[in-house]
């Protein structure tokens, strides 16, 4: 049954009529049933096109409206769609829904325009209702109701079904259209054009065509009747009759076909594509755009063109490969031909793995699990030399009988006994050997911090993971095929017979098979018959939650799902998590097994360890973690002896390694090549730049390799003038040779060199000294060093109190007339005094930070700075929040991120500078002090004082006499032994309680400690490396960790950021400007001031955007590398980057350039700018690293 055009209908019984109502009508349904198998409704719009179709099939409801298709409880869908027995897909130019439900098949077709068609099964004859009639086989009784024959519109009114909130008026009068005879001839010709031989009766279609012609906006126009011709074409095609390509570009055109497709009136809707070129289906033809004969649709590339099958591309893991392209996988190469992979298997190594305590995967990929405590034969083979056997030792690792795990792997032959266990390597006479270890054709070395590798020349390779769970991976060459026995199976390519026992029969269960390979008298292995997760619902949920990261979408592991099925690994993960007491190492081991399998397929899952709690690995020293590492070219040893450690693994392994360009030395530190020792035979080594004489040849250790200069090369030639070569083999007047060659550094120490043994080498001519670059210079040109940088003769630097000039390799310093020092109060009670003493206190009283007038005769004090501590953590940790500054009658009160000033004192000049991050007070007490007070509106407060008198100062900031030892001077003028006694003496209010102990918030909040250490580690990272040799970072790091642990009521990120900002500021004081904040890590929102203006009364901001005023930006400092007249601090500034705001002139002024010294070899980073003037300038060093995210 179908409807088309402006309102033509053809019922199931092939009766044709016309009706143009615009209500919602039932098209076809099953009569008189409470829940009919199908119910199809439609509504025409005023433009006569079909506006909506509703298809109800039992519980499924499909709605087609405005060209989009939605399914109830799924929403809008994309084609093709298949679900619950319903298929919706394009069908030529139409869309077809096929429903195959319980005992029912139904097809609905539409074209998003004027056409709707339903095909039902014969069993519904006589049972249907709706505009499609009663389907009883007689065409003239469609409109009979209760025995009366109704008019079309009355019949249609019965089929009307209003929406819930609608009353649709149906057409009341019958308009029976009369066809015009004058169009009969042309209509008949047009229908013949479609199909002259079609057996579908033409009469009804001629009438519909005539009606189309006369109702048209341009009557008689051929294009008026396209819908009817199309319907005739469809009905002929459905009756499998011949249909011609009757459409042309300007007659009923289907529109332009995309790409190189062509129009066919009768094309197969079963589209042959590159992904399925053989597709065929028994369906009638339809009109639309199709690929020309002999080509298929390229559905793999996104351009959907028709190509010859030979040009079809291939896909793999979501990547497209062009025809003819080859792809290499672990053990096969595949070539893309005709849209398919044509693969050839290559000879491939066998792999057997012992993972997760109790899981074994054999060479032929059979996985099993067993719980036994014994030494088992892992692999024996006639291909192993000297009767070699590989064994595995399993031990109990917990209380329950199933907590057994691999603890060691043994290789035994008539020549060797090698035991590799968790701690180290033992050999036959049970002595511990250090790695690397060589015995004949076996080499054992540490490939990374987590893996030990045993490399042999006879085709066996063993990789052992030592942490977190001891696991072993055996790899054998193809020559072992069919020649192995033991727990790793028989490696014959057949998985079914892997349980081949030592008695040469295939067992059915793992435990019996394992027992037959016991290499000692031990109890049989036990099967765990109950699921370990069944014992505790809580453990089960926890295990499933943690392990589900393997199978979830949107995780790190998802990109490997296409290559390696995660389900077996997920099950193994859950089993391990429930079975072993130590849950997390085993969960991580299961995730690691999956990641390893993925990397064996060429997919390295970067960062998977960070996606799971407790799986990340912390590296010692300055090593970094990598998912693809090897010892080769990352250790000093591999430079000395490539045969020892340069054996690659074909599956990437993870672990800690030295950063690129550094090498692991004998002390487990990462050093540059030039500091690598050189390894000799039997574990001896010589340090860099030392020499050894073997067989009359002198060898020097240079860059980790022995560089031997024999008789052939004259070492004297390597000396460039003015150096000359001194050799120990000649009889010398100086019997120590080059040992005490004069260097600038020795000149600076001024101590005579004490030689111990003779060394040959290049020596500067008399009167010249070797400088840091190895050149010979006269004494006055020797450079001076400061903070890792070299300064030439006559260059100056300024520290807080001195101006120093470089002379003859030494600094000559002159004290400045005015000298300043800073006292810092930061974070939760950390204080650094003027003389540099550090302590922490937690007290919630008011304390005097600094005041003058402390000498015995008690003169009147001209200033007093008091801090009041407020508790800001559950553990009782305090933070300095409120600060009062008394200058005679003038009082500043700093609290709640703002300040108030009351009273006046004409003898004091002050100036307040405001910034988004800081408030800065410049205070001058004429004849006595110049003070700068900087407050970051939270917990950090800095007092910078330069004094013109030697007036004594006292308080928690110490006595400012240059001596750190007596800084704990109490109010009563004696030096306290500990800081608590000292702090309690400086209480402003004597009735306030004393402090008796300092809390350690990290021990109270152990769960926060890891977070604190991780986030504070930015201080130790490359971001601040430029400052590491200028300011000792450890106290700042410890303070940061303590504060981040203690701030546990809120504002924890603020505490942490403030603590890091203190270190950044200490660096800035030394002239190193560090750009450490990022949008994710401690951001500062300076752009706010571009779009918000101060309100009239001046204490709030309102939004007032001004396009051309985008001048506010965050800067880590002002005028980097240049002279700057104020105290340099980070903040929001609205001058350009090479200008600063002059507070006196109230405008931006250009920065003043200064010269750069050159960088010495000992510098931490190779390009580190610095400045002659330290206290008043800064050098920006911004290093791209990944900051920890807060």
TrEMBL record:
CDD domains: TIL. Residues 1-169, 350-534, 821-993 form the VWFD domain. One of its GO terms (molecular function) is virion binding. One of its GO terms (cellular component) is extracellular matrix. GO terms for biological process: cholesterol homeostasis; intestinal cholesterol absorption; macrophage activation involved in immune response. It is found in: Secreted. Coiled coil: none annotated. Keywords: Disulfide bond, Glycoprotein, Repeat, Secreted. SUPFAM superfamilies: Serine protease inhibitors. PROSITE patterns: VWFD. Gene3D superfamilies: Laminin (2.10.25.10). Ovomucin, the glycoprotein responsible for the gel properties of egg white, is composed for 2 subunits, alpha-ovomucin/MUC5B and beta-ovomucin/MUC6. This is VWFD domain-containing protein. The lineage of its organism: Eukaryota, Metazoa, Chordata, Craniata, Vertebrata.
